[in-house]
Specification:
Largest sheet of chain A: 8 strands, mixed
Strand content of chain A: 25-35%
Oligomer: homodimer
Number of domains of chain A: 2
Number of helices of chain A: 9
Largest interface: A-B, 55 and 56 residues
Distance between the termini of chain A: 24 Å
Amino acid sequence: MHALALLNQPSRDAPPHAAGAPPFRLVDPDGLHLSVLDLGVTRGDGIFETISAGHGRPQALDAHLRRFAASASALELPIPDSQAWRDAILAVISELGDVPEAFVKTVYTRGIEGDGRPTGWVHGSHSPDLGRVRVDGVRVVTLDRGYRHDVATTSPWLLAGAKTLSYAVNRAVIREARRRDADDVIFVSSDGYILEGPTSTVLLRRGNVLMTPGTGLAILEGTTQGSIFGFAEANGYETGFELSTVEDLHTADAIWLVSSVRHAAPVTALDGVPVAIDRVMTVRINEFLQQRQE
Amino acid sequence: MHALALLNQPSRDAPPHAAGAPPFRLVDPDGLHLSVLDLGVTRGDGIFETISAGHGRPQALDAHLRRFAASASALELPIPDSQAWRDAILAVISELGDVPEAFVKTVYTRGIEGDGRPTGWVHGSHSPDLGRVRVDGVRVVTLDRGYRHDVATTSPWLLAGAKTLSYAVNRAVIREARRRDADDVIFVSSDGYILEGPTSTVLLRRGNVLMTPGTGLAILEGTTQGSIFGFAEANGYETGFELSTVEDLHTADAIWLVSSVRHAAPVTALDGVPVAIDRVMTVRINEFLQQRQE
């Protein structure tokens, strides 16, 4: 089961939704709706978000739309019309019906070169069964991302911290992980700091404190991590951002990779070394993520 | 005037061109031929080449097809069927007619997730008028690429040296160049070596020697640079590959950015400092590139 909405993007010279055009239209998700000339595919020149939905309600939608706008700004794309995107997201989720877990992906590209009009769509589908990975966890390897930790400040044109369509490396590292008998990856900066997963945020627990790699690290602001921090603080944990190394990971009490669709996957091994799982907290976090309505 | 051929990709389990399917079909280039679920657009997960054609003949086609296959290998895509691609390229160029300058772009993606079948197409069009830029040249700024020069050896999963669809950074640096009152960019490694342009190879002349940044630098093998080296050697120049710094650029006798469609654009300024143009050699290189038939 899947569904697709195409956003009607205003042309360069027209006001938004001129002539009363609706902000989006639902179309056959199995159809062909994209030109091979779209810069989204010829140059990976665009942005995306992946947003989970529980029983027909999007989760952390405001945080995702904020990050979507921040990515657009980093790529100097026209500011996305958040009301139009919100409406399209809700319409696609509605098409998917009242299921426990679904997700939508919003994609916004620079459109066809010279056309001056971006391309946008929302694609949604039911989530696969992720029950096992949330319990059994993932084996992780650390891999060099090649960039220093401060590259967002020194070299903003590298777009570190924007969620772009140029994710070939994020896919290649998963193949490298498989070669190393692992499932997922934690990126490490060229100067030795842990960053994020290719599609997730790293969380670590040290006693009563839940931490994630610090701000200013040229990584994505974690929408799921943001939700979890709110939940943890309401349940007596301290939370914080800090510069951490691979050595800090090895001495943590527990590690998770958290993301919108998979939620919290406990890390069971790091570069081949077993990592203890905090089963109780893993269950509590995943129950909270699945049930939240915001 | 433009034209488009869609490659018929074999499914995972079928032999190539099973059941006598033709290797490609010409379709309306203004049509919509791509799914929004194609990993080429959702993840920039694919590769491309841009190949020039003069009077209906592709230029440096073998070198481009070799590099295309090398990029596919780096991304662990199925090996492209070079005969099918060659046929499709020639058919598209033929559609464009006998014009002095045209170009085609070959794109090869991982296809729709789970489908196991890559997506491929060849799009061609007449070249814009590039006469001025080949004479008047380009103002260039140097920008940090963030990676060390040896990253292809230390961290092959970063795909440096593969021509992928994940080119959002290559587009962002052109916007940064514009902000700095320049037209184009030469990337510099985080440890200070000049690399390549976002869509070109750097050439520099020092007396009777024509040089390009060395091998092992995590940069693309230059197809146009390869043609020019052959021409230069036949005309009494020495050629070579070497590790060079921005300081080496400033003391060169002339600098060019060379690429398939624009050919050789002389660099007229580097980070705001005027650079001498070698007008005679620029004309000779561009005449050679335009007239070559190989």
